[in-house]
Amino acid sequence: MTGGVADGAPGSLARRSTGDGPPLVLVNGYAATAADWDPGFLGELGRESTVICPDNRGMGGSTGSTDGLTVETMAADVVALLDELDLREVDLAGWSMGGFVAQEVAATSPERVRRLVLLSTSGGGPDAPRSAAAAWRDLTDHGGTPHEQARRLLGLLFPADVAERIYAEFGDVVAAARAQLDPDALSAQEAAMIAWQRGPAAERLAAIRAPALVATGTEDVVIPAANSLLLATALPDSWLARFPGCGHAFMAQEPTRAAGLITAFLGR
């Protein structure tokens, strides 16, 4: 998807907001929009924070070219959004690919990030454990009907029994959302993730000054849980939390516990 913004220039990020309190920006992951956050999770976070959920460029209502998209470009978009909203400093959270983006913002604009929350994500670099080839193939498979894509996606985000239960209740909703996605924007995000994960990590992680919460589901097949231990080790001023029996989207499995943990970490 292309907008009226030249490649590399900040895009205009659509966003939704909920709750009341100090600002907490949530950056979503691959193929996801602001509308895809679990409503219970957002509701719990919104008790103590003004939760701002942007669409990454090329997704939802956001503009900006995805030609040559990089994680660094998406991070610059987030900083531009903070400028637009006149927010000097925020708490910043990122899930999955959004965690890549959040790390870039925290490393390159440390004065803008008070506290950092990294959910189901990786620090990248050669030592970061990767998902199995089959999981990556299923994640990035644009083929099949929207319902087939929805079932495949839910099978990656949750343990099998949970995935079937969610598909039975919300399969139509997930399929409709999948049908709205631009395959070119998805391919651009895939290339950006691959490039970022292959790049150096140590210097970027060393530049992060904000205290960090690193959380993962122990059954994550998209970004293995071992990545969270590596991240927490590299970020000495950090908390590490593991959610037993939960998958990549552990915040949707345990919305109250996950939101409560984040709120406690933020000192609300």
Which SSEs are present, and which pair or pack?
Blueprint: E1 15-19, E2 23-27, H1 39-45, E3 50-54, H2 71-84, E4 90-95, H3 97-108, E5 113-119, H4 133-139, H5 146-157, H6 160-179, H7 183-198, H8 202-206, E6 212-217, H9 226-234, E7 238-243, H10 250-253, H11 255-266
Parallel strand pairs: 2-3, 2-4, 4-5, 5-6, 6-7
Antiparallel strand pairs: 1-3
- Taken from the alpha-carbon principal axes, the silhouette is globular
For the biggest sheet, the summary is: 7 strands, mixed
Strand line-up across the major sheet: 1-3-2-4-5-6-7
Structural class: alpha/beta
The SSE order reads: EEHEHEHEHHHHHEHEHH
Mean pLDDT over the full residue set: 94
> Which range best describes the helical content: under 10%, 10-25%, 25-40%, 40-55%, 55-70% or over 70%?
40-55%
- Counting DSSP E segments of at least 2 residues, the number of strands comes to 7
CATH fold category name: Rossmann fold
CATH superfamily: Alpha/Beta hydrolase fold, catalytic domain
| Distance linking N and C termini | 38 Å
Oligomer, anyone? single chain
Low-confidence stretches: 1-9
Number of helical elements: 11
Radius of gyration: 17 Å
Top CATH class: Alpha Beta
Q: What would you say the CATH architecture is?
A: 3-Layer(aba) Sandwich
